[in-house]
Each structure stands twice: as structure tokens, then as C-alpha cells.
Amino acid sequence: DAGVIQSPRHEVTEMGQEVTLRCKPISGHDYLFWYRQTMMRGLELLIYFNNNVPIDDSGMPEDRFSAKMPNASFSTLKIQPSEPRDSAVYFCASSTGTDSYNEQFFGPGTRLTVL
Amino acid sequence: GNSVTQMEGPVTLSEEAFLTINCTYTATGYPSLFWYVQYPGEGLQLLLKATKADDKGSNKGFEATYRKETTSFHLEKGSVQVSDSAVYFCALSDPYSGGYQKVTFGIGTKLQVIP
Fold it and tell me: Which of B93, B106, B108 is nearest to B11 (CA)?
């Protein structure tokens, strides 16, 4: 299996622009997670989906952030408008959720820089 | 709520030295505990796990024992290698708070092993 795929790997944009990050989970996994990693705050869960349905979006920082999962093999995280404080590495992860403990498989991340 | 506290790094060791990274947790119920590792430029990957008290997780020479009485899950390795240089995250999932799917991560401890 190719693992979790994220694109782009790097994104540089200017303040005010719309940014869309993309994720393809591992086939057969029914949970998908979006995380943000910064030096100051560490790894933060933004939102997660089960069977394409958003379950918990309490970590989404504000209305500028939105996430969708139109089908089992694709999800997007959108920031509109972007701000310099959104600069971070964004990870997507997926899991099966069938075990009593839940191993998450992470993608390589998208490094976002907002100028 | 749930939380994970781990020692702040960076930790710098010489090759073949003994490694300990401390981790303590707070949880409502009886969580599953994890150590994830992040190599430079990559996403996190599961290193080891333990699902109940006194369980010992082990992988690649690393070990951690689930200590309920001290609410700890310290990571140890008897002889580190340069290839172990990475960031190590302690984490938990608590079925009584957020469910097995929601994982709480510590801040991460950077390990640097010098030849």
C-alpha cells in the first residue's frame, strides 16, 4: 500500500489567499484525521471523520478553516483567507478504528508558509 | 480532560548510551498508551503501545511499561544508535473521553544521538 498521501508537500502563499490541502487515506481505513504541528503548540487535532462524516471539529481554530471528505478516498482542508499564524505543518492520518487501541497512520505532511 | 506530559528536549546522547524519556498522563478512564516516532521530514509512526496496566510494549529495542500507580509510560532503550535520532511523542487514547479514535499527544521530545 502507498500509505497516506498528502499534497502538496510544500505550499508558500501570501496572506489573504485561499489554501487547499489534500489527503488520500489508506484504502479500507474508515477514520481520517487532520492535525496541525507547530513548535509552540505541538501536535493539535483539528478534525476527524468516520465513514466520511465529521465527528469532532472542536479543534478547528476558527471559521477560516473548513474540511470536507466527499468520499472514502479523498479529503481536503481549506483555509480562507490564510494568515501568517497559520504557518505550520499539516498532517493527515487514517486508521481502521476496529481495534481496542487505535494506531494512526500519518502522511508525510504539508508544510505551509503564509507570508 | 486528558493530557500527556513528557520531558522537554532536546536530549543529546552518545551512541550506545542508555535512553530514558519520561512520560506521565492524566486520563478519565483506563487509556491505551502509545509512543510514536517522527523522523526528519516524515510523518509520525507508531513505535510501541500498551493497552492495560503492567503491559510492556516493545519494538526495535525500545520498551515502555504501563504503570497505572504512577500514571507513567517511560520510554527506554539500552543502547541508542545514530539512526534513533528523531522526535518521540507519548500519546494516549481514552474510551471514556473522546473514544479510542481520539488520540492526545505530548509535546514531543527531540533525541539527537552523536557518534
Answer: B108
